Structures are given as C-alpha cells and as structure tokens.
Amino acid sequence: xxxxxxxxxxxxxxxxxxxxxxxxxxxxxxxxxxxxxxxxxxxxxxxxxxxxxxxxxxxxxxxxxxxxxxxxxxxxxxxxxxxxxxxxxxxxxxxxxxxxxxxxxxxxxxxxxxxxxxxxxxxxxxxxxxxxxxxxxxxxxxxxxxxxxxxxxxxxxxxxxxxxxxxxxxxxxxxxxxxxxxxxxxxxxxxxxxxxxxxxxxxxxxxxxxxxxxxxxxxxxxxxxxxxxxxxxxxxxxxxxxxxxxxxxxxxxxxxxxxxxxxxxxxxxxxxxxxxxxxxxxxxxxxxxxxxxxxxxxxxxxxxxxxxxxxxxxxxxxxxxxxxxxxxxxxxxxxxxxxxxxxxxxxxxxxxxxxxxxxxxxxxxxxxxxxxxxxxxxxxxxxxxxxxxxxxxxxxxxxxxxxxxxxxxxxxxxxxxxxxxxxxxxxxxxxxxxxxxxxxxxxxxxxxxxxxxxxxxxxxxxxxxxxxxxxxxxxxxxxxxxxxxxxxxxxxxxxxxxxxxx
Length: 502
Fold this sequence. Notes:
The chain is α/β, with parallel strands linked by helices and 502 residues long.
C-alpha cells in the first residue's frame, strides 16, 4: 500500500494533534503511525493532555490536518467542548476530528457529530494497527481534498478581486491628462494592486550611446530607497538589463518591468520589496499595463500638441514684444509669475497650466498698433492713447472663435487684462469679479513686471517701491487677493526675474 512506503518524504509532513490525558495513548499512536505516508508526506505529532491545552495548541498552530480527540479528560465532555470550540469560536472548518473514548457506551449524540463536523468516532479498543491506519488515511485524504477546494476558491476570489482592482485602477488612470499626474496615479494604482510600499516609474529619454543615469527620466516614485540614492549603480544595471533585453525581470527583491509603447519611449516600473510576483499578479500587471501603454501614448501625443501650441504662442508673444523694444523674456516672466499666483491661490493644476500657456498672448493686439504710437518714448497724447487702447479689442478679434482651451483663455486675457478692479479700466469698464479670473491675475503680473524692469518711458523701480505701489493700487487697479499673494511670494517672483533677465 502506498501509505506504508518507507521512502524518505520530500514534502512537509502532515501535522496531527494527539489530545488525550493518558501518555501511553500518545506513545502507542505515534509508534503505530511511524511509517505512515500519504502523497509522499509523513506525519508529525503535536501533543496535548487536556482540553484547555488542546485549545492553546489549536489557536497557535493553523496547519493541523487531523485531531485525535479523547472525549473524557478533565471533564466528561472535554473532548466535545474542544470540538465545539474549534468549529464555532475558532472557526476552523478544515481540520478533521476523530473522537476516541476508552469508556464504551459513552458515545456522543448524533447531533454533536453532525453539528461539529466530526470525521469519525472510535473506541480506543477498536483502534488496532490496521484501523488506525485506515482511519488516519481517510481523515487526511478528506483534509487534503477540502484544502484543494479552498485553495481553488481563494485563487478564484483573488483573481476576481484583482480584475476589479485593474478595472478600477484603469478608470482612474485614464482620467489623467497630464503626464506626471498620470505617472503618479499609475504608480499609486500598481502599488495598491500588488500591495507594496516602495516603487518608481521611469521612462527612457531616448537612444543613447552611453548607458547611465541620464538615460532615464523619473516620472513618479513612492517611498524612499533605503540607501537614499534614487538610482543606485545596482538599480541602473537592472534598468540597463531591462532596456537592452526588452524584458521584465525579478532581481532579488526588486522587480523591474519593461513596458514598451508605440511612441518608442518605453516605461520602466521598479517595485521594491517584492518576494515574488505570483502568476496571477503577473497576469494582472500585464493586463493593466497593456491598457496603460495606450493611455501613455495618448497622453504623450496630447502633451506634444499642447507643448507645440504653447511654444507657438510664446514665440508669437516674443514677436509682439520685440516690436515694442521690450525683451522677449517679458512674456516668459509673465507666464511664470501668473503660474506662481495661480498655484498659490489653490487653482486646480489643469487650469494653472492653461493660464501659464495663455498669458504670453496678453498683448497680441499690439501687433496692429502703429510704431509711432507703440515706440513713442514720451507720454502719449489723447489721440495716441485712444489708438493704444484699441489693442485689447484687436487681440480678441485675432483669438476669438477658437474652441481650444488655451486660445479661448488667451482671447479673454487679451481682451480684459487692462480692466481695473474698480471699473475704471478699458475697453469694457468691467469691475471686480466681472473681470475674468485669468485677466485679474495677468494684470497683477503685468504691473509687477513693468515696474521691475526698464522701459523706453521709465527706469526700473526698486523692489520696496514696487511693493508699496502694489499695495497702493490694491482694490483699485488690481485684485487685492492676488496682490497679497504676490507680496507673500515676492522672493519666488524675484527668482523668476533672475531666471529670465532682460
């Protein structure tokens, strides 16, 4: 018989708990089953000599396959109490129970056997060598089959939950339009998917003859590396391996995933603290990342269009400013200071980016202003001032009608950036919050930049005088909220001036 084989087992033994207040019963049972084998696995024994001790062992040991349980120990029903406790309180529905008694006629009632899923009942005098083997074999085979069913159920549950996480994660990720927001969201979802804490998402910068840190752009990361180095020599070697072989691989506890896309800018996913990637997790990651690659391409394409649009707007703004002998960096400073104020106000990031790209077009209408007026070094007379005041309407006429967010914003800014908070501005005489939010921010940035830099009609002002003037016109010319935000962030605004000097 296969279960009598004396072959040395290679698998973990079946764990059996012997519960009996007679030590001789422990010794006899263990000796009788010494050569037992099932599926190449032998037996290991755990001993308890009372019902209370049995509960302690069962609470501590989660993988006991079979309990030989004496009915009468410290009390007449100690064994039955252990059986009830196992099923009801410990909620152990898997371990098989064989009740044994040395007192014939004290058999448990049928309802006890049924209610507590007791596998068998034997009198101790019945358990000769053959019956003990067959009883053990039947009980362990039942335990084995129950555990296989449970493993299959858990695998199915994990796979279903994994698919739900993939679907939910994909829905969240595809809402992101900004590349870094997308990367950060992706990383958060992958970490949740695999229940990890430390990870990093990178992309290849492009083809390079020399391998090294400059090859990789870190898009997002979660958690801090233990050595403090984001791209250690060891990790760089692993990234180079993935890049060269175009394959995902587990290096110790670090998983480096390689996910190409049609743009040619492959993304690399680094997961730290991974003991292993299960087959289910690998499949889920593959499903998730195949969808993400499409979204990644779409975002790159959208970003390329947005960046191209923004650059054209910036260059057009340069052309306009060059006509008035103002340095091209004026529009760059305007763009950055507007972005600074928008962020400081808590504006959503998507809107701040629209403002950042649209601000350089604020004076686009000056392209139609005659040189005699635009370049006049002195004060304009009344007729010349009326000509100058036409440029907001001209700017609107140039930009109006587009359905693109940046150009729509630029049209509003061009038309309203000379309106004043008290209603004394032009061309419409709008006041307060009737003036678009973008135009109010641009007005503050424009006045700040004009005062801080030399113009054909004036010298640059000292910072203290600029701040004093801003406070003086706050609530009259300019929106007081954004004046205060600029003053609070004056150091950052001055740093922008240093980055983009005339």
